[in-house]
Amino acid sequence: MPRRLHIASLHPGVLSLDPIQVRHARQALRLMDGDEVELFDDAGRTALATIIAGASHELNLRVDAVREAREIGFTWTVAAAVPKGERADWLVEKLSELGCGGFVPLIAERSVVTPKGTGKHDRWVRIATESAKQCRRPGVMCIESPISLDECLRTLDIGAGGSAWFFDTGSTAIPVRELLLNPVAPRSLTVLVGPEGGWSPTEVDRMLDARLTAVALTSTILRVETAAVAAGALVASMWASPRG
């Protein structure tokens, strides 16, 4: 199986990799001129490519034909409060491995971490890209800019095949297993995960008014990253896995 390298946008012709990919290919993978690799891009296109002669600090590849991204019948996104430190990096990596389409850093009333600037965003893009390379998923998980809960609610696609959940510990929340046993998956799903301090009563009311479904994940209180990844594993295995 050929080594896998990432490029932002894939098309036939001679392509050049960015410096990060060049270092990985030359120093870690020890790839040489004439070696064949698999290229993939953000949109899920793939191609076999041959490394051609170039300077030591460059890596040029010849692509003859590109395979278009396969159609995805079900897509899912996680909008979650940002946990502290490296726990956020782990969250991004694992959601990418599970096939999540996008991660939305969510700013809730009780959020502890509010990302500022582009540092975290750029780091998460790199993590998602490296994860995609390793797990051989189609495309790269999209990392959105941080948004407030109200902004998130305005962008949700609910109805006409789209659905949205928020995890809640209230007594009226529906157990997640009841929703996942539905043999017909929605066309798209957005899962909202609140901060470790929980949603405020006002936020719960706003989400219910916006037609989100309150969902109970476990009988215990989970950390943000645990809840997001546990939910992602359930959704990916029940609704996003290939069916025979």
From TrEMBL:
Residue ranges constituting the Ribosomal RNA small subunit methyltransferase E PUA-like domain according to the UniProt record: 21-61
Family annotation (CDD domains): RsmE-like
Example GO BP: rRNA base methylation
GO cellular component: cytoplasm
Keywords on record: Cytoplasm, Methyltransferase, rRNA processing, S-adenosyl-L-methionine, Transferase
Residue intervals of the Ribosomal RNA small subunit methyltransferase E methyltransferase domain: 76-235
Family matches, as InterPro entries: Alpha/beta_knot_MTases (IPR029028), PUA-like_sf (IPR015947), RsmE (IPR006700), RsmE_MTase_dom (IPR046886), RsmE_PUA-like (IPR046887), tRNA_m1G_MTases_N (IPR029026)
EC number: 2.1.1.193
Catalytic function, reaction form: uridine(1498) in 16S rRNA + S-adenosyl-L-methionine = N(3)-methyluridine(1498) in 16S rRNA + S-adenosyl-L-homocysteine + H(+)
Subcellular location(s) per record: Cytoplasm
GO molecular function: rRNA (uridine-N3-)-methyltransferase activity
PANTHER family for this protein: 16S RRNA (URACIL(1498)-N(3))-METHYLTRANSFERASE, RIBOSOMAL RNA SMALL SUBUNIT METHYLTRANSFERASE E
Function recorded in the entry: Specifically methylates the N3 position of the uracil ring of uridine 1498 (m3U1498) in 16S rRNA. Acts on the fully assembled 30S ribosomal subunit.
Entry's family note: Belongs to the RNA methyltransferase RsmE family.
Protein name: Ribosomal RNA small subunit methyltransferase E
Record lineage: Bacteria, Pseudomonadati, Planctomycetota, Phycisphaerae, Tepidisphaerales
